[in-house]
Input
Amino acid sequence: MERDPVDKLLDAVESGKSLITNREILHFTYIPDTIPHRNSEQEQITQTLIPILKHSRPSNLLVYGKPGTGKTLVVKKILSQIQKRVEKSNFPIKLVYVNSKEETTLYGLLVSFGRELGLVEEKLPSTGLAISEVFKRLLKTIEENHYNIVFVIDEIDHLVHLVSKTGNDVLYQLTRANERLKKATLTLVGISNDLTFKERLDPRVISSLGEEEIVFTNYTVEQLKKILEDRIQLAFIKGAIEESAINLCAAMAGREHGDARRAIDLIRVAGEIAEREQSNTVKEEHIRKASQKIEEDKETTALRSYPLHEKLLIIAVMKAAGLSTGEIYSAYKSLCKIIRQKELTQRRITQMLSEIELSGIITGKIIHQGIHGRTKKYKLTISPEMVKNTFKDELTFEDIL
Ligand SMILES: Nc1ncnc2c1ncn2[C@@H]1O[C@H](COP(=O)(O)OP(=O)(O)OP(=O)(O)O)[C@@H](O)[C@H]1O
Ligand SMILES: [Mg+2]
Output
């Protein structure tokens, strides 16, 4: 007799085949006690911030490095260690951390900052003021309370990206706030994984924000292995991961640029897959499956986030009789007809194809056709099943998949 699927899973839990003992340790918010391979970065950043404990102004600081190189981790750890010392003293020192990516507006970011300084809704409303007024109120509080502040803006490139002109202005004002403060100080720490971000900044902002700069280098495969081993020891039962699996995981995460986040994600997902399969250990095959799953999840999220016509176009690429832009456009038009949507022009669609190509979901190739000139041919880089499965729950597409 076929076993009940629910009981099967519940039995597995009861029979104790869980490999992961502490899932939280594999979560991206977990801060380990020791951070291997980042001693000199920790020292440099701490050195830069030390003046805050002596009531003088630390230099502004820019922290750079590719994704997953430990920037957020290191800065947060240092902040929490300084914070512990600050709490023992009565000094008006404030350490504030915000992430630009988590804020939808510049206004929101400044209000978050204000709240950390104790500015309540009546003093600093969540909407409605001009940015310059928000700024004025922030500076007033800082000055009146004689605060010495370290203000960390993580993923600072987003701030500039979202609101290029205002973002630059605000950064400029923030970096120069000290000139307007007499009894207080404000130090800015910007963190970014976009190495070209500086090019988009106002030169005045660069010179001020970049008083000090620290670059986090990419981890080597060996370093990733050590980071993984430390984490595994805390999060998995003893002997849960085969040596070859750890090696593969480190190698895969090191392939592009030595990304510790990717390494930890891989091991977590591999652990979950191995548990589900009721395997006694995590093997190389689980790491491979995990990598595939992470890739697919990324693609699904990307597909879902497209607006309607982009989605139609992706379906058209999947269904078109040929691959040329003209053939794809015809397929797109017939899809529009079926779901009663007004079609966009061929020009707009050609442009849209190039935009989608940037995401990597489709790929294009220019074909020279002798006297007929040239055309660009597109095809999907992901499987048609992936497209169908992702869109099948959307009612609009019911009749065209
Ligand atoms: N040296 C290290 N030791 C232990 N864990 C690390 C180390 N470096 C990074 N990690 C872990 O890797 C993950 C990514 O690190 P972190 O979030 O600090 O990267 P980041 O440089 O801020 O990346 P991004 O630019 O994408 O924000 C986190 O889970 C972090 O705990
Ligand atoms: Mg980060």
Q: What stands out?
A: Residues 149 and 186 are 5 Å apart (CA to CA). The chain is about 50% helix and 10% strand. The radius of gyration is 26 Å. Residues 71-72, 154 surround magnesium ion (ligand 2) (CB under 6 Å).
